[in-house]
TrEMBL record:
PROSITE patterns attached to this UniProt entry: ATP_GRASP
Keywords, ordered alphabetically: ATP-binding, Ligase, Nucleotide-binding
Domain ATP-grasp: 128-336
Alphabetized Gene3D superfamilies for the sequence: 3.40.50.20, ATP-grasp fold, A domain, ATP-grasp fold, B domain
Lineage: Bacteria, Bacillati, Cyanobacteriota, Cyanophyceae, Nostocales
Record InterPro entries: ATP-grasp, ATP_grasp_subdomain_1, Dala_Dala_lig_C
Molecular function GO labels: ligase activity
Pfam families given in the database record: Dala_Dala_lig_C
Family: Belongs to the D-alanine--D-alanine ligase family.
Name of this chain's protein: D-alanine--D-alanine ligase
Amino acid sequence: MPLLNILHLVGSAQNDFYCDLSRLYAQDCLTATAERSRYHFQVAYITPDGKWRFPRSLNLEDIAIAKPISLVEAIQFITAQNIDLVLPQMFCIPGMTYYRALFDLLKIPCVGNSADIMAIASHKARTKAIVAAAGVKVPRGELLRPGDVPTITPPVVIKPVSSDNSLGVALVKEASDYEAALQTAFEYADEVIVETFIELGREVRCGIIVKDGDLVGLPLEEYKLDPDEKPIRSYADKLQKTDDGNLSFSAKDNMKSWIVDPSDPITKRVQEVAKMCHQALGCRHYSLFDFRIDPQGQPWFLEAGLYCSFAPKSVISCMAIAAGIPLNELFMTVIHETLSSSNLHQFSCI
């Protein structure tokens, strides 16, 4: 059986933070999913100056010696490689949109959600509007631009409309705290969401994968929060800087998060809502959603995170393992769906 030639699309066209974040996840994925009898991996690494590199690995030394080339040269190189599919590992807005769309033009299938869906999901207000129209409960909110005055009475949560990993997120309890929180949020985006704070019951994430065309709900991941001491999650819960200045994962253990017992009644309820979100947004292959559970047990949609790097510490990977699906099986399942949906799309266009 011929090897499947997979191109890992890594780096960022936006800034060094997203470059480091992408490399962190992609490096773990390359190590964990390498099966020489099944896959041949190549790496495309994009930097904020728009240059492309094709290093032997994601070690900093290999990246440093790889020749930087232009987009035109990169396309010429890629089209000569007989790539079977692309695994996007970029988390910046251009990486989730423009660069995925490039491979649509090159007619090379992409694992995960399409560029247009990623563009929607990267804008929290648009995502909320779409899932709300499908019947999913969302907190009342408003979209602000610089100079706008919020009208929602605190407590509220303020979020940059297009940032991830809780960058710029704040809980405002008093109207006097609005100005400072908005100023911080606008450092990360030119639009900001102000939404009603949902009292804490629980906070969970739910992953969905597609298997043989069916939506499969994965076990929930729940986060340790406290109504008084820690009512919302922060950047420090997700990432941290090491002594050498590199990004690393914050420690994942059952003190910060854990897999919810599948027999917990909230599991099925959240999975059904997550499937509604998946279908409303037009997702494919997999999806991931955050929900706030109020004290009465009602799930409220918070946001979508429609990517998976297939690193062992990726949320969907952890959920799948908890469901008895090893990482390599998850990887093969998503690859199968990618190639199958690509073949169907090509057939439908004939």
